TrEMBL record:
<feature type="domain" description="AB hydrolase-1">
    <location>
        <begin position="119"/>
        <end position="354"/>
    </location>
</feature>
<dbReference type="InterPro" id="IPR000639">
    <property type="entry name" value="Epox_hydrolase-like"/>
</dbReference>
<dbReference type="InterPro" id="IPR000073">
    <property type="entry name" value="AB_hydrolase_1"/>
</dbReference>
<dbReference type="Pfam" id="PF12697">
    <property type="entry name" value="Abhydrolase_6"/>
</dbReference>
<protein>
    <recommendedName>
        <fullName>AB hydrolase-1 domain-containing protein</fullName>
    </recommendedName>
</protein>
<dbReference type="InterPro" id="IPR029058">
    <property type="entry name" value="AB_hydrolase_fold"/>
</dbReference>
Amino acid sequence: MLSPITTRHGDIHKCLWFRSPYPTNRAAEQCYCHPRVTKMLALTVTSTSPALASTGARFKVLAEKFPSFLPKQVDNIKDPLARKLASRIERLPVHVSFSENCIMSSVVKPSIQSKTSPVVLLHGFDSNCLEWRYTYPLLEEAGLETWAVDILGWGFSDLERLPPCNAASKREHLYQLWKSYIKRPMILVGPSLGAAVAIDFAVHHPDAVQNLVLIDASVYTEGTGNLAKLPRIVAYAGVYLLKSIPLRLYVNVLAFNNISLSTSLDWTNVGRLHCLFPWWENATVNFMISGGYNVSAQIDQVKQKTLIIWGEDDQIISNKLAVRLHCELPDAIIHQIPDCGHLPHVERPSSVAKLILEFIRENCKVEAECLSHN
C-alpha cells in the first residue's frame, strides 16, 4: 500500500491523502484516498519508499499534454496538481467593444454541469488560474460546475494585440465571457485583488451574479495610488522587478505560513508562469498607469449575499479589515481560518472548499423554502 505523500501543510496534505469536506457522517470525518486526486497524482520514475524499492516496484509519470500556447517553462513545474490543471487550460474567443479582434481568453472549463449556479473562480493581482490547483478539483468532486477564469491582462490569454487593461476593460471582458459561455447567474469567487474585481463586476452586472465569495479581500486600497503617476520608464523598471524570482520568493514568505524553500521555488514557478509572455510587461504597466481598482465606495451597493473567508495569520491584509468588510456589506457572513495566511485556497484548500459548498447548500435550501411558501 502506498504511503501518504507528505506536504508542509496538513490541509494540502488532505488533497493527496484527503479529508473529505463533505462526508456522509459529519460527526466523524474519515480520511480516504481521493479517487480523482489519485488519478492526478504521478509518482516519479522510481519510488524512494524502502518497501517499494525492495519489491522493485516502479511508478511512471503520467505525462500531461500541455496546451501549445503555454510558456515552455510549464515543464519545470513539479506540483502534480498544478500540472494537471495547466493541462486543462484552453482559450475561448471573447468579443469586446474595445478591440477589433476577439480576445482568445484563457479558462479552465467545467467537466460537469449541475443544477446549482456555476462557480466562477477569479485570481489575485498579477496571478493566474493555477492559483486554484488544490481547491478546484475538490469543488468539482463535490459536484459543482466550476470555472477558473483568467482576468484580462494576467493569466494565459493571447494579448499580443494589446487591449486596454484598466478596470473597465477587465469588467467588460469578464461580462462578455460570462454572456457567451457561462450564461447563468454565477457564484463569483475573488481572492485578494480578485475580490475588488468581483465587487466591481457584481455592482455593474447584478443579474450575472447570484452570490459572492471574497477571500482575504483587497478592497480598501485606493487603486494603484502614486504608481499611476510614475514615468513609463520607471513603471517598466518596477514591473520588471515584479516578475523577479527573489521578489516572488519574498512574497511567498509573507503570504504563507512556514513555507519550505523547495515548495516556495515551485510555487514561484507556478505564480509567475504568465509573466513569461512577451506582452505581460505592457499589460501590467497599462493597468498600473490606469489607476487600478478603487471599490471601497461600492461595497455598500453589493446586493448579493456574500461569504467572506479570511486567513487569521494574513501578513499582507489585516484580518481587522475582514471585520470591517463584514460590517459594511449589506448581507454577509464571515469565516476565519486558523493557522492560515493570505491565500487560503492554496494553503487550506479543504477548508475553503467546505465553506463554499456549505454556503451554496444553505442558499439553495433558503431558495427552496422561499419557493415552497409562494
